[in-house]
Write a structure and sequence with these properties.
One of its GO terms (molecular function) is efflux transmembrane transporter activity. With 448 residues, the chain is α+β, with helices and mostly antiparallel strands. The protein contains nine helices and eight strands. The protein has a single domain, classed as Outer membrane efflux proteins (OEP) (Up-down Bundle).
Length: 448
């Protein structure tokens, strides 16, 4: 009895765990976006780039701080170099052609030195530091642009799955209806009130619907995989959606469209930062005409002995040295390299200005096109929704006439096909309208 209770409890625990796992994989659109902002690989790389730009600022700033080096050295002169001298230098009685050799130095030597340098003035440093900070600001905008791209991709993929799920529901309803009609037709055929071809036509239609159902199921699986990739979720994990198409809001404000400034788009800001960096690049080249001033200082001590054992003896005398210096580097002539480098940078800046004008014009056109596309697709959606309702009504009337024996089987099949096509047209118009609204929100900066 106890073993049975334990087994039931264990199975209940497994069911709770499985339910918890499944519950964790049910996402609303907002939850899917929040998950993607934390797990999308492109966004992670953008965050890493932002951190790298932050570190680059400190790396550049370090060049303007004091540079201090310490050095300790030991040398064992295993064989001292002999210097050749006239012997008369040491021995007055030596002949004029007599020579002698002298070894200058000792076998064991040790030294300790500290050197320091401080930049006093370097125009390239200050401009480079400003450029590093400007680059940091740019990569922050790049990260925001990546976030918008991720939100756009997740939103479109999310609604693609929902549209296909609705299509599956409609096909299931059609299958259920055709199965019922097929069963009624079989009974009529068995009683002699219908022909064999009527049953065959309905069976073919049912088989086509089931095949279509399998195809849509595969499309849903592929759509979910696209959504998972956009979210940064492993594709092997199960995923369910909690939102419905009824939650989608197609409304927008005309005044907001008219008042929006496309220069506030992140794409325009990215080029503006590139232009700022190009201007700083030109200033950096020009600053290289200005002299660079550096302060240098050093201090050291050295000692030596022919015996290694007493080299660092407390009685050993150490000899000190120190220096302080100022270094001024004055550029004189570089073959006009900086002149032509500056011209090339100006051409690059001119290209960026042209790209900016083209981009802002394209963004303005994108906003207008998105607004017009939404209006057109909403009109199409309204028409297709009305067509679907009419096709449904025609199908119901045709089915009723067929049931009462005053309509043909072929008319019913044609009506069913028309209704199914109307459903497909409606869902296509619905998804196109959703995509147009998402594009408009992106143009208005609402996906930030």
């Amino acid at each position: 009895m106890k073993r049975s209770i334990r087994r039931v409890n264990f199975l209940a625990l497994l069911m709770l765990i499985a339910f918890g796992v499944n519950a964790q994989n049910v996402f609303s659109l907002r939850e899917a976006i929040e998950y993607s902002l934390a797990n999308n690989q492109d966004l992670k790389n953008a965050m890493v780039t932002t951190k790298d730009a932050e570190a680059q600022v400190f790396e550049t700033r370090a060049d303007g701080l004091p540079q201090i080096d310490a050095n300790f050295g030991y040398t064992n002169n295993t064989q001292l170099q002999q210097s050749i001298l006239r012997a008369s230098v040491f021995d007055p009685t030596a002949g004029p052609n007599d020579i002698t050799t002298v070894a200058f130095g000792i076998q064991h030597q040790s030294n300790f030195n500290i050197t320091a340098s401080q930049m006093i003035w370097d125009g390239s440093f200050f401009i480079g530091l400003k450029a590093a900070r400007k680059l940091r600001e740019k990569v922050v905008v790049d990260q925001k642009k990546t976030e918008v791209d991720v939100v756009e991709a997740v939103t479109k993929a999310y609604y693609l799955v929902l549209v296909n799920q609705v299509r599956t529901d409609l096909i299931d309803t059609n299958i259920e209806t055709i199965e019922k009609t097929l069963e009624e037709t079989r009974q009529l055929y068995e009683n002699g009130f219908a022909e064999k071809i009527d049953v065959t036509r309905l069976q073919v239609q049912l088989n086509n619907l089931k095949t279509e159902r399998q195809g849509v199921s595969q499309v849903i699986a592929s759509s979910k995989n696209i959504l998972k990739l956009s979210m940064g979720m492993p594709v092997i994990q199960p995923l369910s959606l909690s939102d419905t198409l009824d939650d989608f809001d197609f409304s927008y404000s005309n005044s907001e469209v008219q008042a929006y400034n496309v220069q506030e788009r992140l794409e325009a800001q990215q080029i503006n930062y590139l232009k700022d960096l190009a201007i700083l690049d030109i200033k950096n080249i020009r600053s290289q005409y200005i002299p660079k001033v550096t302060l240098n200082a050093g201090w050291g001590r050295n000692t030596g002995n022919d015996s290694f054992g007493t080299l660092w003896n407390s009685d050993r005398m150490w000899f000190g040295s120190s220096f302080v210096g100022l270094n001024v580097n004055i550029p004189v002539f570089d073959g006009l390299r900086k002149k032509y480098t500056t011209e090339r940078k100006k051409y690059q800046l001119e290209t960026l200005n042209n790209q900016y004008d083209l981009l802002t014009n394209n963004l303005q056109q994108e906003l207008i096109n998105a607004k017009d596309a939404l209006e057109v697709n909403l009109q199409r959606l309204e028409v297709q929704e009305a067509n679907m309702a009419l096709a449904k009504e025609v199908t119901e009337i045709t089915r009723e006439k067929y049931t009462e024996g005053i309509g043909s089987n072929l008319e019913l099949i044609n009506a069913e096909d028309g209704y199914k096509q109307a459903e497909v047209n409606y869902l296509t118009a619905l998804y196109d309208a959703i995509i147009a609204k998402i594009d408009l929100d992106k143009s208005l900066g609402k996906l930030n």
